[in-house]
Amino acid sequence: MKKLITLASAALISMAAQAGDFPERNITTVVTWGAGGGTDTMNRLIMGEMAPKLGVNINVVNVTGGVSGSAGLVDGYGRAADGYSLVGLSESNVAAGVMGGWSNRMDVFDYFIVAGSPDLISVSTKTDYKSIEDLVTAAKANPGSIKAGAAGAGSIHHLNLLAFMKGTQTEFNFIPYDGSAPSQNAVLTGEVELVITSLAEQSQLIQSGDFRPLAMLVKDPVTVKGNEIPSALAKYDDLNQYLPISQSIGFAIRKDAPKDAKVAIAKAFTEAMETEKVKTFLDQNYYVASGQFGKEANATFSKLEALFAWTLADLGAAKVSPDSLGIAKPN
Amino acid sequence: MQDLAHFFISIAQLLSQPVIILVLFCSTFMGIIFGAMPGLTATLGVALLTTLTYSFNESIALVSLLAMYVGAVYGGSYTAILLNIPGTAASAATAMDGYPMAQRDGAGRVLGLTTTASAIGTIIGMLFVVLLSPLITKMALQFTSFEYFLLALFGIIISGTLTSSDLVIKGWIAGLIGLWMSTIGRDQLLMYPRFTFGNPNLDSGLEVVAVLIGAFGIPQIITALRARVKLAKPVRIKRVLPEFGTMLRNLPTIIRSSLIGVGIGAVPGIGEDIAGWVSYGTAKKFSKTPDEFGTGLPEAVISTETSNNACIGGAMIPLLTLGIPGSPPAMMLLGALMLHNITPGPMLLIENPNFIIEVAAILLLASVSMWICGITLARYVTRILEVPQTLFMPVIGLLCVIGSYALGLKIFNLFLMLPIGLLSYFLIQMKYPIAPLVIGVILGPMADTSLRRALMVSQGSIAPIFERPVSLALFSIIVLLILSQIPWFKSLFGRVQREISSKFHHSH
After folding, report:
1. pLDDT per position as a tens digit, B181-228
2. ipTM of this predicted complex?
3. Between B141, B338, B350, which is nearest A189 by CB?
4. pTM of the predicted model as reported, rounded to 2 decimal places
5. Which domain holds residue B447?
6. Closest among A198, A196, A135, A195 to A171, alpha carbons compared
7. Domain boundaries in chain A?
8. Spelled out in words, what is the top-level CATH class assigned to the domain A25-117+247-325?
9. How far is CA B468 from CA A146, B170, B342, B402, in A?
10. How many domains does chain B have?
11. Interface of A with B in 119-158 (CB under 8 A)
């Protein structure tokens, strides 16, 4: 009898563990970028949908600053590995290591990628550039004279610009801005001729006729309200060596977090990705849903880490050499 | 006309839902608390409410976010008036006259004035959103990097000119110290580390909130404890009167300050912080009694509070017409709207033309609720001053510590706040004003990156300053401001003025 009770209770305990006690209390997500930005908005959205599935509240806080959002990475990674702390991040965080912001590699986390929006090159409708060929021809005639705006050195948009210049053998005068919005504003004021930001950020200005989209920096063309934006990769074959560099917005959990926590979060994440609200949001704002997690997502971030690290090192902007961090050069 | 009808329908619709009214008042109240607490900012408040209102419908979310914004911009004036410690950078200019006036006439009177001025400012800002959005958008698009640089420089110089009780140059020196402090950290264009000494905590530069609290809070605590001064006259008041008579007499100031507020709010990237100072300076220029500024003048507090609240409407204009936020809290608002499937930008007005009217209706309701909350609250908050110094100041000290830590949850901010506080204390003892230092830290990064970016664009030429109308105007104002303080220029200018006026008199 006694044995039976022990057995039964042991079974019960293991069943409870199986069913997963996680989460027993509220979860906190540390977003590494500022309030109201793309990463912040995406995290508030997905956390808002995951919370009811997990049956607890998820608090979203912003810890910004450092280099490449390193302050938030340090803070988020510094918290207990119990699964109750998540880190909201994007592809641009992967440069934190080489920029001297934190001493870890990106593989200390497991990633969940919600979505990304493809980058494109646009000009003001007041300029004479009607196609990407016009722009490339003009740039070749006068190297370094055309002003190209994008978010600051080492951002994904800057990397896209560098890749475009390499692939088309052109040279632009890169003017860095504090973010995508100010760089787009600079096209409107006429301070720069072209801008590289994501389709999510440009869609309104394209539809209103303020921006003329010249080319997508991904493999496939994209249609915005009936008008097709061609792919630059289809027109300049060499670009395929360097592009696409895909934006990946989502969140991460410490790799050493308990397995049941990771399973519970992965389940809630998958369900949240299927909700109408998330789908509508991504659709309306020209994001491409990802839903990657586990090995696949980790591989994406590992690739991004190598790409960002070595591009910055080549630019002379990296403070720590990628070699010393053990980041292999991408081929 | 149709718009007007829709405006009233929107208001009626909002008011017919009790839950909206509840949310409106709660959010405004929370906003006032966020504004009044040093360290808690409007941006943080809006971010917090974005998460809280995630599962509610769009109009509840919008009401709570805008009410929070309006309340927080107004709330900063509480601590500025009562303690001479501005709760937000936006209310630093309010402290200039608000604090001495509270000591002389009692805090109740000042709060009555600022509450009404803030409400009027918000409403005028709202009117501009509805009536002149396209025009103001066009104006804001005149601002390229050179203009941003000159505007930032102008902000630092004007606050230096206005705040110095001793030599004006001392104000500029304080401003330049602030400008230097703002260069600490990675430079934002090329990520090059400057004055960081390898300390990663300094990579992102000095945290503005820690500087704000250190520079204003610590010296005030030390001074109060050393001198054992009474904080302000604890005048027992039954209720706080809005003083409509005084408001009416200051109508030109109100209108001028609102225009300044809307204009500055509409330029992307800058907002409430600088609007207060520009409006204070302009009010002084136009005043019949410019020498009395700084001693507690009603028109001074009215000018600053009207303009920083008018900024809200201004900041909404580029947000709604271009999708570019005009101020940091507006940036958070952009994210919140997107979560509710509203993407601010040029298409918004085409696809949903009534949206701007709804925003205007909510802003009107928010300013009314802010006014009611403010007038009711003022009666109670003035009693804080009856708490004995020896008990009160340590509490303020504790709040300073919590406030610096709360934003970003960084212990390093405390190590930053204390030395800046001590430095500020000694600067104040040597009769250096401290506000320009803080403004320097706030506007420094804009001045620095804009100038360098402008030179990248022009490939090293400074000629565009003289070729562009807005930058030429700003440049001339700055040069005049500086020249007007140089003795020989002053006497020359005075002589010319006298001669002209005497000739003028002769001919009559």
Report:
1. 999 988 878 777 899 887 877 877 888 878 888 888 888 888 877 776
2. 0.78
3. B141
4. 0.81
5. 2-467
6. A135
7. 25-117+247-325, 119-241
8. alpha beta
9. 20, 31, 36, 46
10. 2
11. 147, 152-154
